[in-house]
């Protein structure tokens, strides 16, 4: 049975300003829907396990579509996946063929230096699995290393939430760092698309999306890879 592990943040607030944050719901629900449509089971994990906060802005009427509402009103999704996500120490990487790091600005604080998350992803990669990430969730790759100890992202084509998109959001001075800049520093070949338009970059079994609107296409690229 093919299984996917969706990883989301536990961070509820920016650490430097009074601004709530968390998972951007759309990034989890749309990827999850693609997995469900293709009969792939999903589990949710977070750095600390337990409750996954949602960025309140993602719940506005303008940001919620039917897929988001269907998940948000589903008791299993709310009470199991979001309220009781798995802890890293309770996850066996061998059980999963896909790991997907969902975005939301909260991920910026608990993904980039998290060796436990990176270790699980590295095992899935070494087992021939798929590493997928979207938007700010791509910062989880910063902690990953190859077998030889070099950066996982070095020389790889990828994308993430861009400097332009952060500027349009008005968050450049409030976030911990600019994901695009940090990924470029690691030697990644950053592929930038139009702001807030779907953009997915596939580099072998590494699949990354630029922004929340890319989540469905990331899921579809994962399915395409699984079917090879």
Model description:
α1 links the parallel β1 and β2. It is built from 8 helices and 8 strands. The strands form 2 sheets. It has a 6-stranded mixed β-sheet. A two-stranded parallel ribbon has the order 5-6. The mean pLDDT is 97. The chain is 31% helix and 14% strand. It is globular and about 40 Å long. With 228 residues, it is an alpha/beta fold. The protein has helices spanning 25-37, 66-72, 75-82, 107-110, 115-126, 163-169, 179-185, 215-226, and strands at residues 3-7, 41-45, 98-101, 130-134, 157-158, 189-190, 200-203, 206-209. It starts with a strand and ends with a helix.
Q: What is the fold's blueprint, element by element?
A:
Blueprint (H helix, E strand, L loop, with lengths): L2 E5 L17 H13 L3 E5 L20 H7 L2 H8 L15 E4 L5 H4 L4 H12 L3 E5 L22 E2 L4 H7 L9 H7 L3 E2 L9 E4 L2 E4 L5 H12 L2
Parallel strand pairs: 1-2, 1-3, 3-4, 4-8, 5-6
Antiparallel strand pairs: 7-8
Helix pairs in contact: 1-2, 1-8
**Strand tally, please?**
8
Q: Please tell me what the overall shape is.
A: globular
Order of helices and strands: EHEHHEHHEEHHEEEH
Radius of gyration: 16 Å
Mean pLDDT: 97
* Number of discrete helical segments: 8
> How many angstroms does the end-to-end distance come to?
16 Å
Backbone structural class: alpha/beta
Helix fraction? 25-40%
Strand order of the largest sheet: 2-1-3-4-8-7
Largest sheet: 6 strands, mixed
Sheet-strand content, in percent, reads: 5-15%
Poorly predicted segments? none
